[in-house]
Amino acid sequence: MQPLKLVVSGAVGAGKTTFIQTLSETVVVATDVEASEDIGKTNTTVAMDFGTVHVGDDLLFLFGTPGQERFDFMWDVLCDGALGLLILVSGIKPSDFRHSRRILEFISTRYSIPYLVGVTHQDHGHAWAAEDIASYFETPPEHVIGIDATDLASCKSALTSLLAVIAERTDLQSPV
Ligand SMILES: Nc1nc2c(ncn2[C@@H]2O[C@H](COP(=O)(O)OP(=O)(O)OP(=O)(O)O)[C@@H](O)[C@H]2O)c(=O)[nH]1
Ligand SMILES: [Mg+2]
C-alpha cells in the first residue's frame, strides 16, 4: 500500500520538529541547525523534518516544514501530493497568532488540502485554548485541537483527528 503523506507546518517554535520526533517510529531525519539570527531559540529547521508512523495498517509519512519565512519555497516541495496538513500554533506565543493565521490561509488556499490546527504547549497552565484560537482563526472548532507536542498520546490524538478531517473531506468529494 502507498504511504500517506502528511505535512506539519506553522511558525518558528510552534513544535513541528517536536511533534514529528514524538510520533515517529523511525529515526527522524531532521535538518535543524543553529539559528543565524535571534528567533527566540537556539536551533531551527532549515529544510525539513521527516518521520514515519503507522496508524492501523496505514503507513504515514510525516514531513515538517521550516518555520522561518525565508524558507517558504520548501512548502511547494513538501506539500506536493500531501493528503492533509497540520498547522501548529504555539499556545504560549500570542505574538505569532497573526503570522500563523496567514500561514494557514496561504497554505490551505494554495494547496486546497484538508487541515487541522494544533495549538501546542497545552501542558503549560497559561496556554491559549483551542476554542479561542478557532474563534481567532475563524475556523470550525472541530478543526482545532490542543496538543502537548512532547506527549505521545496527545500527538496520536491529533493525528487521529487530522485523519478524520481528511476522511470527511474525501467522503464529501466522492461521487454518489
Ligand atoms: N512543553 C512543551 N514544549 C514544546 C511543545 N511544543 C514544542 N515545545 C518545545 O518548544 C521548542 C521549539 O520546538 P520545535 O519543535 O523546535 O519547533 P519548530 O516548530 O520545529 O521550530 P522551527 O523549526 O524553528 O520552525 C522546543 O524546545 C520544544 O521542546 C509542547 O507542546 N509542550
Ligand atoms: Mg523545526
UniProtKB/TrEMBL annotation:
This is GTPase. Belongs to the GPN-loop GTPase family. The keyword Plastid does not apply. It comes from the Bacteria. Pfam families: ATP_bind_1. InterPro entries: Gliding_Motility_GTPase, Gpn, P-loop_NTPase. Keywords: GTP-binding, Hydrolase, Nucleotide-binding.
